[in-house]
Amino acid sequence: MKKLLAILLTVCFMLGVFAACTNDNTPANTNGPEGNNNNENPGQTQTNTPVSEGLDLSVSKEPKKDWVTYLTLANEMETFNILYSQNNKELRVLTNCIDGLLSNDNHGNLVPAIAETWGTEDGGKTWTFNLRKGVQWVNMNGEAMQEVKAEDWLVGLEWVLNFHKNEAANTSMPTEMIEGAADYYAYVAGYQDLEIPADADAATKEKLTKDYEKAKAKFEAICEKYGLEPVRLTADEAKSMDLTVFKQMVGIEAPDDYTLIYHCVAELPYFATVATYNCLYPAPQALIDELGVDGFYACTNENMWYNGCYTITHYINGNEKVLTKNPLYWDTDCTLFDTVTYKMVESGDVAFQMFQADELDYIELTESNLRTIYNSESNEFHDYIVEARPTKYSYQLHLCWDKRDENGDPDVNWNTAIANENFRLAWYYGLDATPYLARTNFIYPQHCANYCYTMSNLVSFSNGQEYTERVMEKLGISPDGENYARVDAAKAAEYKAKAMEELAAQGVTFPVVADYYIQGSSQTALDTANVLKQLFTDCLGDDFVTLNIKTYISSVAKEVRSPQLASFYINGWGADYGDPQNYLGQETYGMDNAYYSEAYSITRNITDEKLIAVYEEFTNMVNAANAIVGDMDARYEAYADAEKYMIEHALVIPWYKNVLWQVTHVNDYSKIYAPYGIQGDKFKNWETSADAYTTEDYAKLAEAYAAGTAK
Question: 707 exposed, middle or buried (CB, 10 Å; 0-12, 13-18, 19+)?
Answer without folding.
Answer: middle
